[in-house]
Specification:
By secondary structure, this protein is of the alpha/beta class. It has twelve helices and nine strands. The strands form two sheets. A seven-stranded mixed beta sheet has the order 1-2-3-4-5-7-9, sandwiched between helices. Helix 3 links the parallel strand 3 and strand 4. Helix 6 packs across helix 7 and helix 6 packs antiparallel against helix 10. The structure holds octanoyl-coenzyme A. The site of octanoyl-coenzyme A has 29 residues, from helix 11 and helix 12.
Length: 303
Amino acid sequence: MAFRAALRNTSALSGLLSQVSSCNHGRVCASSVFVVAQQRNNSTSPKITVDFDQSTGVAVMRMKSPPVNSLSLDFLTEFCISVEKLEMDKSCRGLIITSSLPKVFSAGLDIMEMYGRSPERCGEFWKAVQEMWLKLYSSNMVTIAAINGSSPAGGCLMSLTCDYRIMADNPRYTIGLNETQLGIVAPFWFKDTMANTVGHRTTELALALGLLYNPNEALTMGLVDQIVPEDKVMTTAEQAMAKWLAIPDHARQITKSMMRKQTIDKLTAKREADIQNFVGFITKDSIQKSLRVYLEMLKKRKA
Ligand code: CO8
């Protein structure tokens, strides 16, 4: 029988969230449009639901942070706590990550967390991004991304941390690490995660040009493992999960660790330097200008 994890009621979450809001002393953004976006990010409603089926040992995590499941500090905090809770529950062996929003899996990192923010806040944010990656990439659970919408940048990274990716076969959806299109650079561990999946040269081209791929292209290059009609994404994910769970846990986990340990150790060893590097880079005037231009382009495209 499935039950819904009451994550927002945990004292750990409220403690962390209050810590988060107390360090939110970012500068006020110039335009009212950006203020609206920031207010949206400050919402305290849960951004994730988790349904854990004890009979199968599989949890389904649904991201539901409108409009586009962007990865804000609040979102990442809630996300990491959810994963941690499942990880600690030994009866949970598998995790399917999906979106409950139409058309979008995740729009990646919340650009408003990188625009007009104080260095302290940027550092806090980046630490949370690292935490999400570390938790997922090293998870003992079988992790499957059920990609039921577009998944650029950090959304692509999130799905790349999973053991297996299934994407909805809708040519309007795209996936990829498009950071250079924003005038920013995917850090080494984004690059390593992609190279571990699709190889060095394909990653070089993808990152340099900030390419976003449709589902067919993503399948051909190995960025996703399967594409299926949109209404079959979840059932296919459940079938794939059953196959993965048929493998003895210890053998699968040791294999996963063997494949990923080097990449994980690299970030773990350089975590603080990576935060400093991000903060120094993202707070540069020229980078802030690029982000502003990109945000304006997003708004114009909509109009
Ligand atoms: N962050 C914040 N707000 C966003 C983001 C985002 N990533 N993406 C979209 N939004 C906002 C839009 O501006 C819009 O706001 P408003 O309603 O106020 O006008 C709202 O969300 C809805 O967006 P759309 O109308 O574009 O929604 P669609 O359903 O038409 O399209 C997409 C959805 C395809 C996801 C589209 O919004 C999109 O392409 N978004 C941009 C995605 C993107 O480029 N993300 C990159 C983020 S950077 C990252 O993840 C890694 C950074 C690594 C940093 C390294 C530095 C050293």
